[in-house]
Amino acid sequence: MKDKNCAYCMREERSELLEQFGIYICDLSVSSLILFKEQSHPGRCIVAYKDHVSEIVDLSDDDRNAFFSDVSRAAKAIHAAFSPDKINYGAYGDTGCHLHVHLVPKYKDGFEWGGVFAMNPGRTNLSQDDYAEMTARIKTNLDG
Questions:
Q1: CA-CA distance, 82 to 95, in Å (whole number)?
Q2: DSSP assignment of 96-123, as one string?
């Protein structure tokens, strides 16, 4: 089931919703991988579950395991592409109510090291060419 006001659900039909904050990279086994436009943490992405469910407990064991496999696969690609010192994982949804996980690369000499990441610090937006280069690096490393 889809929510017509949800950026993750309406990625194709109403792309302007997603384009406010993210860039679609690709589909994974049970989710979509999205580059977060605000790049204060180089390589920050979102893994969004394929269906409009709010809670992890709404998934079958198999779907939950597949979702976390997608999260792990995306994290491995981010590690390979950007070499962060750590990735923070955030699963929120107080307002969006669509199951998704933020993958936030952290760098020891970088922004917010040693603290909780800001949801949208509004510091770093890139050119379309830079976004394209980042998504290509991530895609290249998804299977590598």
A1: 30
A2: T-S-EEEEEEE-TTSTTTTSPPPS----
Model confidence pLDDT, tens digit, residues 64-109:
999 999 999 999 999 999 999 999 999 987 777 899 999 999 999 8
Hey, where are the domains in the chain?
Answer: 15-142
Q: How far is CA 110 from the centre of its chain?
A: 20
Q: Report the topology of domain 15-142.
A: HIT family, subunit A (3.30.428)
Counting beta carbons within 10 angstroms of the beta carbon of residue 71, is it exposed (0 to 12), middle (13 to 18) or buried (19 or more)?
buried
Round to whole Å and give the CA distance between 83 and 94.
31
Q: What CA–CA distance (Å, rounded) separates 123 from 41? A: 10
